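From the methods appendix. Each design record in this collection lists the tokenized structure first, followed by the designed amino acid sequence. Records were kept in a plain field format so they could be parsed without special tools. The example shown here is representative of the layout used throughout.

RECORD:
FOLD TOKENS (175 positions):
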């Protein structure tokens, strides 16, 4: 398979059904930002913690499903479902059990993996906003929106978890 085709040289790209749309299309922007979040999560791995790395690999696979959904307006498969949201919530709950209770806002940052996960959270929030915009224009799977919303919470928690395990202290903003 050739990596380059030249088909996008004039600002158009193919959806999964082979229809051509502008690279500025809201659909392309939505799955492009999901891809960006996925890449940042890949940048955070390996964290050095098998459980967290397994969760992040699961998230990356889920994000590929969302990208596929957003790239194909009429497809039924693959699809993010309630079970994917439940899985992320379970990972959040497990991680949260290990953390000190959060009593105030914290500044995003920490060690390399922790800071990257905080960055991925911010990009996931942007992906969610783009997905909402897409959903305002075309029908999309509502579970994908729920997943992105929950994922940003998960990435925040995972960033805190890896920082805690690495003994990197959290700092709060000073107002």
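DESIGN:
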């Amino acid at each position: 398979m050739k990596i380059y085709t030249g088909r996008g040289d004039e600002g158009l790209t193919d959806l999964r059904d082979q229809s051509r749309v502008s690279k500025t299309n809201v659909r392309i922007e939505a799955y492009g930002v999901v891809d960006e979040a996925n890449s940042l999560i890949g940048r955070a791995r390996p964290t050095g913690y098998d459980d967290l790395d397994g969760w992040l690999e699961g998230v990356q696979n889920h994000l590929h499903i969302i990208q596929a959904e957003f790239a194909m307006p009429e497809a039924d498969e693959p699809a993010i479902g309630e079970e994917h949201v439940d899985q992320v919530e379970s990972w959040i709950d497990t991680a949260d059990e290990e953390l000190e209770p959060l009593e105030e806002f914290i500044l995003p940052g920490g060690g390399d993996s922790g800071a990257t996960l905080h960055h991925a959270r911010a990009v996931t929030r942007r992906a969610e906003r783009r997905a909402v915009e897409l959903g305002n224009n075309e029908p999309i799977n509502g579970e994908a929106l729920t997943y992105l919303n929950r994922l940003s919470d998960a990435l925040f928690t995972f960033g805190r978890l890896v920082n805690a395990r690495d003994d990197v202290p959290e700092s709060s903003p000073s107002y």
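APPENDIX NOTE: The helical segments are 26-44, 50-71, 82-98, 112-137, 142-165.
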